[in-house]
Write a structure and sequence with these properties.
Layout: E1 3-10, H1 12-24, E2 30-36, E3 40-43, H2 55-60, E4 64-67, E5 75-77, E6 80-88, H3 98-116, E7 123-125, E8 150-152, E9 155-165, E10 168-176, H4 182-188, H5 192-202, H6 213-238
Parallel strand pairs: 1-2, 3-4
Antiparallel strand pairs: 2-6, 3-5, 6-10, 7-8, 8-9, 9-10
Helix pairs in contact: 3-6
Length: 239
């Protein structure tokens, strides 16, 4: 059975600390659903945010920063839906290959996007890494699609980072929902031109550029319910 923890609205640091705790104590498949107390950004375990973000501007913008227990680049949690999924190594769906685990989770996300949004062209998993559009783009999740990300017409909708331990893995996912406010990105990014242009070129947001906060929040809640259902079905079919 799938354990579901909906911890509601918390700080970025508290959300990340709970994910690390869930990984330490992992025994059953777990879906962690959560939101953010204020606009936030998380960064991979080995990222030094001061190399990529103007921390003074980050503070002025009241942007909440936190280190993830997984790898990967910087993710802005303002226009997305974030979730975490944990699978113990004893489960039949677990693989020793990280990319296999990545594909397993993002196939579920792919199914969710197909069911929730009506899009003219197919949503799919990208077969290989897309080319980088600048030297700093690899340090931002939505600036470069990588293998098995969920894409629409080659544009990234969903990505993730994973950490695998003896007891299983933690998959921290992000689903792009609305296009970002470029004024904030222009303010906080150090590599403004490269990263912002890459995000514009490589990101697809189903809610588009003209969206209301209540629509974004409603979509998050509905997608959380659908994620829980799809993960349960996928785990049942592999047990």
């Amino acid at each position: 059975m799938l354990q579901i923890f909906d911890t509601g609205i918390q700080s970025a640091a508290d959300n990340m600390l709970l994910d690390a705790k869930l990984l330490d104590q992992l025994k059953e498949p777990t879906l962690h659903l959560y939101q953010w107390a204020r606009p936030s950004a998380t960064f991979g375990y080995f990222i030094r945010p001061e190399k990529h973000l103007d921390l003074q501007k980050v503070a002025q913008r009241h942007l909440d920063l936190a280190r993830r227990p997984t790898g990967g680049g910087i993710v802005f949690h303002i226009w997305d839906l974030a979730f975490s999924f944990l699978l113990p190594s004893t489960h039949p769906a677990f693989s020793l290959g990280t990319l296999d685990n990545y594909r397993f989770v993002n196939n579920i996300v792919l199914d969710v996007m197909k069911n929730f949004f009506t899009l003219k062209d197919p949503v799919e998993l990208i077969a290989q890494n897309a080319p980088s559009l600048g030297p700093d783009c690899q340090n931002f999740c939505m600036a470069k699609p990588t293998q098995y990300d969920v894409v629409y017409k080659g544009l990234k909708i969903a990505g993730a980072a994973q950490r695998k331990r003896k007891q299983g893995y933690l998959h921290q996912g992000t689903i792009s929902l609305a296009y970002p406010h470029t004024d904030l990105l222009n303010d906080v990014l150090l590599s403004k031109k490269d990263v912002l242009e890459a995000m514009k070129s490589y990101t697809f947001a189903p809610l588009g550029r003209l969206w209301e906060p209540h629509t974004l929040q409603k979509t998050r809640i509905e997608l959380q319910k659908l994620l829980a259902d799809k993960f349960q079905r996928a785990l049942t079919s592999t047990s």
